[in-house]
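Much of our argument rests on the idea that a fold can be written as discrete symbols. Part of our work consisted of pairing the sequence of a single chain with a tokenised description of its backbone. The amino acid sequence and the backbone structure tokens for this protein are reproduced below.
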Amino acid sequence: MTASTQTDRRNSYVEIAYEHLRDLILTGELAPGNRVTVQPLTEILKLSPTPIRTALAALERQGLLEIHEHRGYFVPKLGRKDILEIYEIREVIDSVASRRVAQLDERTDIIARLESLLQQQRKAVAAGDIATYRDLDVTFHRTIWENSGNHRLLSLADNLLGQVRIGNNVSSRVPGRVQIAIEEHASIIAALARGSAEDAESATRRHVREAAHALADYLTEQNSAR
């Protein structure tokens, strides 16, 4: 076996561990506060500890795990301050992306895609399928990011996405928030369709800001009730 083949195989093992753990975190199967240890994963994934440790370190760098000295890795518990910081950055990213999309001459296909996603969201919520709604929510915003034409923006958004997904898992439990978010998505689409960069930016900022404060208030209430 050549050195190149060995490297490719190690990278493949790391990717397997990384994708498995990331999926568990983003779906909420590994909930905030859960400890993540190497030994059980070696048995589940049939991998040696080395690629699993590498994957854990990568997830920690992305903010999807945090390391506690002498205790290991944990799924982060997002508090009010964390949420407000994450969504403050997201507000800038999303609003810039919406402004840029609104200014595109050819945006008909983008609008059609967003409208289709919105209808799917409505159906998912009506069916009580909140997990699908969460996935569609990310796809909705990612569609705007990807079509903004700013590749640096997309890179920043991708780096933040995991932490946003953790927040979304909680946000969808805030009473009434899902229904409000859907109507806010409709407002964003309408502004984009009109080609109003100012309105698109304003609607997006309002959407992200409302989500941030609703989630932050919910977390505060939950912590106070404990």
About this structure: The chain has nine helices and three strands.
